[in-house]
Automatic annotation (TrEMBL):
Residues 275-289, 678-694, 724-733 have a biased composition (Polar residues). Residues 392-427 form the Ubiquitin-activating enzyme SCCH domain. It comes from Cyclotella cryptica. Residues 701-713 have a biased composition (Acidic residues). Keywords: ATP-binding, Ligase, Metal-binding, Nucleotide-binding, Ubl conjugation pathway, Zinc. Residues 243-258, 291-303, 625-641, 742-761 have a biased composition (Basic and acidic residues). The active site is at 200 (glycyl thioester intermediate). Belongs to the ubiquitin-activating E1 family. Zn(2+) binds at residues 185, 188, 511, 514. Residues 243-303, 625-766 are annotated as: Disordered. PANTHER family: SUMO-ACTIVATING ENZYME SUBUNIT 2 (PTHR10953:SF5), UBIQUITIN-ACTIVATING ENZYME E1 (PTHR10953). The keyword Kinase does not apply. InterPro entries: ThiF/MoeB/HesA, ThiF_NAD_FAD-bd, UAE_UbL_dom, Uba2, UBA_E1_SCCH, Ubi_acti_E1_SCCH, Ubiquitin-activating_enz, UBQ-activ_enz_E1_Cys_AS. This is SUMO-activating enzyme subunit.
Length: 779
C-alpha cells in the first residue's frame, strides 16, 4: 500500500492514492479550482476532477443545454435541454465525488462544493482579478478566442496558473500559462482571424459555395436582422449613387439599367422587396387579434396570407432575377467564364402556390437531400411565412442551430449557386457545416485532452506544495520545469505515440499582453475616427474591455462604471488627426489602459493612405491587387507591420525609443493581423477559433522529439528525462512562427494524412474552412 492509501480509501480513489504522495493528495483535496466552460471538454474535466477527489470547484458557463450537445456532453440528458449547462454539470459531477474519510484530508474538513455560475466570463463585475485570485489554478474548456483571451489576461494579472486546452476533430493540445513561470501566454502567438471576403466577391462575383453561404447569411441579416445597415448587402443612398456613377462610366446602358431598378429614395429592388416582406412581418406581429377570433376572419386571413406570399415572391424575384439582370446589364460579367443565369420566372410563379410543400416539411425529408431551385424557392417562402405568422421575432443574428435560419440560408445560398453555376449544391447538412465552419467534435479527443489537463493540474499543485514546504524557490520555476505543452496527434509518431509533449514555449518578445511590447498600427489617420479605432481595433482586435485612451498623455476617451459617457462622446466622431492634444498622426504613440485586465499598452501609429487587396484574377488567372474602396475603411488597417522608422513628434520620448528599437525584429511579429482577405496570416493561423488554438497544426514539427515521459512525471522519478527532452525540444518550439509554418507546409506536401487533413481545412477546396468562425460541433 502506498504512502497515501489507507484501508478506508474508497475503491475509486485507490489508483490515485497509490500514485500520489500523501501531501500532494491533501493539496488536491484542499485546492480551489475554477473551470471556465462546461461543454465538450468541460464535462470531461468535471468528471475527471470529481473522480480524482477535487472537492472545491467553481464552474462558469453562459450557455444552456441544446439537443445537439447530448451526444458528447455526457453529463447532460434530454430532460436537461434548456437548463444551464454549468448547473446540470456541477450537480452531476458532485454525485461522483468519492466520500472521504478523515484520514484522507487533515487540512480541509469543509464539505465538497461544485458551484455553478451561469454567466459570461467577460463580465467584469462578477469575474475579476480578486475573484480569480481565490483559486489555486484555472482550467479553460472554451470554444472561442475572445473568452480565452479574457481568461488569459485575468490569470496573468492575478498570477494564477491557467491550463489552456483545445480540440479540433482528432487534434488537440494542452498547455500551461503562468506569469511567474516566464512561459508563452495564450496571446503570444497569432490566432486565426475571421476569414473575410472582399465585398465585391460576395455581392457580385461569387465563385465558391462558401461565397454563396456568406451572402445568404448577410441576406438573413438584411431580411430579419435588428440592424439591416449592418448587412454587407445593405446599400445606403450614397453608395447607390456611387454605383450608378461608376456604371455610367462603364457604359450608358448600365446607367439606364441602374436607374430602372432603383426608386427615388435610392433603394434597390432587393431592399424594396425585403422591406415589403418585413412590413408584412411587422403588420402580422403587431396584430393583436386573439387566436380564437381567427376562424371568423378566415377570408381576411386568406387575403393576408396571399399578400404575404406575393411579397415573398417579389423579394425573391428582386434577388434572383432583377438584381442579376441589373448586374449583367452593367457588363460586370463581360470577362467571366460564365454569365449568371437568373432564376426561371415559372419557378418563381409556382413557389407561392399554397399546395406546394417545402422539402423540410415532407415525410421523406432528410437533411442530406439536395433541393432543386423550385424547392429552394418554396423553402424560402415558407421561412418568410413562418416569420410573419410567429409572435416571436426571428433571431437578429444568424445562428446555425436555429432551424429556420439554417433552412433560409441553405435555400438562399443554393439559389445563388444555381444562378452563378457554382457547384456543388449543398444539402442543409453540408450547408450547416459551411455556415458554422464546423469540424466534427470527437468525444475521445475531448476526453484525452481533459485527462491531460488534470495531469497538468497535478503538476501545478505539486509545485505549490513543494514551494510551501521550501523544496523549491518559486512555484513558477517549478511549473516551467514540470509542466508540458502536449499535442494530441491523429497519426502515431515514429515511436508509436499519439501524445507529443514538449517544454512550455518561451514568451514571444513582441507580445503586448505578457511582454508589454509596443503595438504598431497602420491606418489612415485622416479617415479613421476615434470610434472606429475604439470598436474595430482596441476592442475587437486587441480585446480591451473598458479602455482608457490617451493621446500625448491626455485622456481622450474613458469607459467604466463611474465614468460619465458624455464626457468624451464628442471625441468619438473626430478623425484621429483632429483629436485633442495634437491629434494622432504618423508616429504618434497612443496609450491604452484597462484596469479590468490590469493591462497597459502603447500603440505606435503609422499613417497609410492607400490599401490594396489580392483577389483572384478571373481573366489572366492568378491573383491581382485591387485598391480597396471607401466602403471598407474600417477594414483597412494592419497591426504588427513596420513601425515608422523615425517617429516625428515622439522621436525624443522613451516610447518612441522603444518603438524604434523593436522595429528591427518586427518582421515575424505574431500579432500581425490584417482586417482583410488573403493575407499570409490566414494561412499561418489554422483553426484558432475552434476548440483548439493555433498550435495543433505545428504538431508535426515536434514529431521527432517524441517523449511521453511527462505523463508519468507525477511520481517524480522522470525529471531528468524530461529535462533532457526539454533541451531537445527547445530549438523547435522557439522557432519563429513563419519558419515553423513553412516547415509545416513542406511536410504536408509529403503526404502525411493527418496533416493533409489539417491543410484541407485551410484550403478553399474544403469549403468549410473558408468561413469566419470555426466551431466544433457534434459528429
Ligand atoms: N464567454 C463565455 N463565458 C462563459 N462560458 C463560455 C463563454 N464562451 C463560451 N463558453 C462556453 O464554453 C463551452 C465550450 O464548449 P463546446 O466547445 O463543447 O461548445 P458547445 O457550445 O457546447 O458545443 P457546439 O458549439 O459544438 O455546439 C460552451 O458550453 C460555452 O457556453
Ligand atoms: Zn504573451
Amino acid at each position: 500500500m502506498s504512502t497515501s492509501e489507507s484501508s478506508s480509501t474508497p475503491p475509486i480513489l485507490r489508483g490515485i492514492h497509490a500514485a500520489l504522495p500523501a501531501p500532494l493528495l491533501s493539496q488536491i483535496l484542499s485546492s480551489r479550482i475554477l473551470l471556465v466552460g462546461s461543454g465538450g471538454i468541460g464535462c470531461e474535466l468535471l468528471k475527471n476532477l470529481a473522480l480524482s477527489g477535487f472537492r472545491h470547484v467553481q464552474v462558469i458557463d453562459l450557455d444552456t443545454i441544446d439537443v445537439s450537445n447530448l451526444n458528447r456532453q455526457f453529463l447532460f440528458r434530454s430532460r436537461h435541454v434548456g437548463m444551464a449547462k454549468c448547473k446540470v454539470a456541477s450537480e452531476a459531477a458532485m454525485q461522483m465525488i468519492p466520500p472521504l474519510h478523515n484520514a484522507d484530508n487533515d487540512d480541509d474538513d469543509t464539505p465538497p462544493a461544485y458551484v455553478p455560475h451561469h454567466g459570461n466570463i467577460l463580465d467584469n463585475n462578477q469575474f475579476h482579478v480578486p475573484y480569480i485570485q481565490t483559486f489555486s489554478l484555472v482550467l479553460n474548456a472554451l470554444d472561442n478566442i475572445t473568452a480565452r483571451r479574457r481568461v488569459n489576461r485575468l490569470c496573468l494579472a492575478s498570477g494564477i496558473p491557467l491550463i489552456e486546452a483545445g480540440t479540433a476533430g482528432y487534434l488537440g493540445q494542452v498547455t500551461v500559462i503562468d506569469k511567474n513561470a516566464g512561459v508563452e501566454c495564450y496571446e503570444c502567438q497569432a490566432k486565426s482571424t475571421q476569414k473575410v471576403y472582399p465585398i465585391c466577391t460576395i455581392r457580385s462575383t461569387p465563385s465558391m459555395p462558401v461565397h454563396c453561404v456568406v451572402w445568404a447569411k448577410e441576406l438573413y441579416k438584411l431580411c430579419f436582422g435588428g440592424k439591416v445597415e449592418e448587412s454587407m448587402l445593405f446599400e445606403d443612398e450614397e453608395s447607390l449613387r456611387a454605383e450608378k456613377d461608376g456604371a455610367a462610366d462603364e457604359n450608358d446602358l448600365a446607367e439606364k439599367s441602374s436607374a430602372d431598378t432603383t426608386d427615388g429614395a435610392g433603394k434597390t429592388d432587393t431592399e424594396k422587396s425585403t422591406d415589403a416582406s418585413n412590413k408584412s412581418v411587422d403588420s402580422t406581429t403587431n396584430n393583436n387579434e386573439p387566436p380564437g377570433e381567427k376562424s371568423t376572419h378566415q377570408s381576411k386571413d386568406d387575403n393576408f396570407e396571399s399578400t404575404l406570399r406575393l411579397a415573398a415572391q417579389q423579394a425573391l424575384t428582386a434577388l434572383f432575377v432583377t438584381e442579376i439582370n441589373k448586374q449583367i446589364g452593367m457588363n460586370r460579367y463581360k470577362n467571366a467564364e460564365k454569365v449568371p443565369l437568373p432564376l426561371s420566372l415559372e419557378d418563381l410563379e409556382k413557389c407561392t402556390a399554397t399546395e406546394v410543400i417545402p422539402p423540410t416539411q415532407r415525410k421523406d425529408y432528410q437533411p442530406t437531400q439536395i433541393w432543386s431551385p423550385a424547392e429552394c424557392l418554396v423553402e424560402m417562402v415558407s421561412c418568410f411565412l413562418q416569420v410573419s405568422n410567429s409572435s416571436t421575432p426571428p433571431l437578429p443574428e444568424f445562428d446555425k442551430d436555429d432551424e429556420m435560419a439554417m433552412r433560409f440560408v441553405t435555400a438562399a445560398s443554393n439559389l445563388r449557386s444555381y444562378v452563378f453555376h457554382i457547384e456543388p449544391i449543398q444539402s442543409l447538412y453540408s450547408a450547416k457545416g459551411i455556415a458554422g465552419n464546423i469540424i466534427p467534435a470527437i468525444a475521445t479527443t475531448n476526453a484525452i485532452v481533459a485527462g491531460l489537463q488534470v495531469l497538468q493540474a497535478f503538476h501545478i499543485l505539486k509545485c505549490q506544495w513543494m514551494y510551501k514546504n521550501g523544496e523549491i524557490e518559486d512555484v513558477g520555476g517549478g511549473i516551467k520545469k514540470l509542466c508540458r505543452y502536449t499535442y494530441c496527434l491523429r497519426e502515431k509518431t515514429r515511436r508509436g505515440y499519439i501524445l507529443q509533449p514538449t517544454t512550455l514555449p518561451l514568451p514571444n518578445p513582441n507580445c503586448f499582453v505578457c511582454r508589454n511590447a509596443v503595438i504598431s498600427l497602420s491606418l489612415n489617420t485622416k479617415e479613421w475616427t476615434l470610434q472606429m479605432l475604439l470598436t474595430r481595433v482596441i476592442k475587437k482586435e486587441l480585446g480591451f474591455s473598458q479602455p482608457t485612451i490617451l493621446v500625448g498623455g491626455d485622456i481622450v476617451y474613458e469607459e467604466g462604471d463611474d465614468i460619465d459617457p458624455s464626457e468624451y462622446a464628442s471625441n468619438l466622431s473626430k478623425k484621429l488627426i483632429g483629436l485633442p492634444s495634437g491629434g494622432v498622426g504618423h508616429g504618434t504613440v497612443i496609450g491604452v489602459e484597462d484596469f479590468t485586465q490590469d493591462l497597459e499598452v502603447e500603440i505606435c501609429v503609422s499613417h497609410k493612405d492607400e490599401w490594396f487587396i489580392a483577389v483572384e484574377d478571373e481573366v489572366a488567372g492568378g491573383k491581382k491587387d485591387i485598391k480597396l474602396d471607401d466602403r471598407e475603411e474600417s477594414e483597412k488597417f494592419e497591426i504588427g507591420g513596420k513601425k515608422p522608422s523615425v517617429p516625428p513628434s515622439a522621436a525624443t520620448t522613451d516610447e518612441a525609443q522603444t518603438t524604434k528599437d523593436s522595429t528591427a525584429d518586427d518582421d515575424d511579429s505574431s500579432v500581425e493581423v490584417m482586417g482583410m482577405e488573403s493575407t499570409a496570416n490566414n494561412a499561418q493561423k489554422p483553426s484558432a477559433e475552434n476548440n483548439g488554438s493555433s498550435k495543433e497544426a505545428e504538431a508535426g514539427n515536434v514529431e521527432d522529439d517524441d517523449d511521453d515521459s511527462d505523463i508519468e512525471i507525477i511520481e517524480g522519478g522522470t525529471t531528468d528525462a524530461v529535462a533532457a527532452t526539454s533541451n531537445e525540444n527547445t530549438s523547435e518550439s522557439r522557432m519563429p512562427l513563419k519558419k515553423r509554418r513553412l516547415d509545416w507546409d513542406r511536410e504536408n506536401q509529403n503526404g502525411d494524412d493527418a496533416k493533409k487533413a489539417k491543410i484541407a481545412e485551410d484550403t478553399p477546396a474544403a469549403n468549410s474552412a473558408e468561413i469566419e468562425i470555426i466551431e466544433i460541433d457534434s459528429d
